[in-house]
Amino acid sequence: MSEQRGSSQFRSVNFCAVFVAMPNPPAKEDTWAFQKIGAAFPPNPVKVLGQQNMYVALWYKHGKPIHGRSWNNGGVVECSFPYKKSELRTAQQLEGNIQVLQYTGDHNTQGFWYEWIKYKERFDNTETRQLLRCGDSFPIFWKDRSEGPLLGYVDNKTEIALFSCDGKVYEKKGGELSDMYIIVRNTAGGPPHCECSTCRVAPPPPGPPPPRVMIDEWMDIRAGDPWPDRPLVKALDKTLDNTISGENPDQFVALWYQAGEPVMGRVWNEGGKVAANFCWNKNEYKGNVGSIQVLVHLSEHVRGFDYSWIPFPQAASFDKSKEWIPVHVDNTKGDISSGVITFDGKQILGKVDVKNEKSSAGFGGKENMLVGPACANNTGPLLGYVDNKTEIALFSCDGAVYEKKGGELNDMYIVVRNTKGGPPFCECAHCPKAPPPPPVPPPGPPPPRNSFITKFLKGPLLGYVDNKTEIALFSCDGAVYEKKGGELNDMYIVVRNTKGGPPFCECAHCPKAPPPPPVPPPGPPPPRVMIDEWMDIRAGDPWPDRPLVKALDKTLDNTIPGENPDQYVALWYQAGEPVMGRIWNEGGKVAANFCWNKNEYKGNVGSIQVLVHLSEHVRGFDYSWIPFPQAASFDKNKEWIPVHVDNTKGDISSGVITFDGKQILGKVDVKNEKSSAGFGGKENMLVGPACASNTVVLCRKAKPGYKFD
User: Fold this and answer.
1) What percent of the chain has pLDDT over 90?
2) How many domains does the chain have?
3) Is the same domain home to 609 and 543?
4) Sign of CA dihedral 219, 224, 225, 228
5) Cβ distance 361 to 349 under 8 Å?
């Protein structure tokens, strides 16, 4: 699910599809569901191209139609519409109902299907394409927006498009619209790869394989709807042999959204109706959970991929060079997948956070979770037996029995009694001795490491060289690595340089580089520092005389009572985990505050690092404090990138957080949408939307002519 998805009415494929137009009945009118903000999300909504949770919406202001976007938050409607220079989102602002575009059935009943085309193609094939519009407004999709895609509308008279997000309205016009997408009603045949009974399935042509769907197909339904007649992806592709007591053993993959977070769960057929179960934030949700999505098992001739249920250790990676990739939904909080989890020998379908090694399922009135080894254990190789008459093999694990047969056994191993000679490399007195082995080659890279502490240590190593033998030794994970001769040429050693100071030294004795000229000379700009400068100090040391990076670049106007308003960015490590916090000048000494694992740490916290604000003429980048929604990405193509420390538990950044109107410098986990600061004797935390709307993140941007490595 990491690839972009289209709506269930139009599926993108990995190259251009060619299809034969089929005759359709006369096209019907578009269907719009009237909804109140906060009401239950309507059935069969039309998704925006490639978006998991964005739908086409319509609103009228004084009789004038305006298109915008809606989304599903916990089963209810939320929306955003651009109006003049304001974003409108609340029921009070919108003064009543909005409408959400729906599509029920297919081209055989509706007489058309929805297709997304580029704005510059709007005059192509007009005999079969009808622009979706209301009055002079029609929807337009800004797909390649760097901060995230948006759906807005175009005024057909002026050809000016407006989009709204985070309280702002963005205007685009003219050539800026050419590669954006609009939605049209296509009256010729059905969409590519339509599986209805009237569309012909073409036989595969000779040569390259025919175009096939390469994205997962998610269908929007509601809990309580009639059970769908399309085949769904089933847990372990079978009725579970031993599920939780009281749970239906026929469980199917489902997706739900809560507070903007994707939540995987399960659905089952209960008396011909859809029943659902999800877990989130330690609670179980079942019954009337509102709008959900279910994973459709597309026909063999339509999809260009296969599904399989893979043990966690083999699945725990999103490396695209792997054979099997987890089906997942991307999210800032983690990539969420579907998985069958074993609790006390009982299997049940739930959700898996592969990157953070967590899995959970809802039953018994709560969220039941496994973390770390408990999540991954008992999923490795198994020893079983084969019935020689039937050639059927059985394996057992966690209270379940697995059956394999036929070709599935070919690459499994059996044990035999060999009566000829001894085993390879036998060292008994009767067996001939093998010639001595060739010299041991230099060791390769260390083996894969899965524990937290070894992941933390993975990467470069510092060792030593024996000056007499010129042999270097390095140690890690209980192993010692030897390097010598030419292998050492590109490694680094440390020397004492007695001449002058280091490059870009800012002491009083070293000459200062002149400021850059107003107009840079031809050719590349002069070399500058492109990495952050962290200085090691200790709490209680004299206050440093170098300039430091300050919260919001100023004295905070309204900080927590009792806290110093002049706060500077600091970094501390606890149990191998980087922790951002703050320092301040207390009587000429360094005072510090950090929070970790629900506790506040201040006073004598030991060694820390502080972020130096290098001089303008030395650094090739600038710092700025950026609101969380714009900062929440590490895409290198973005203008502003969060200043962060890489870590297996999350990439930790520095941020100013607002608690009850009071600002304070703390730490931000951008990917998992969490921010916290230490005060009042504890760690104070904001999660999800509360974090996003109350956190400003320290970011950096390369200056013109410079780039980060």
Assistant:
1) 52
2) 3
3) yes
4) positive
5) yes
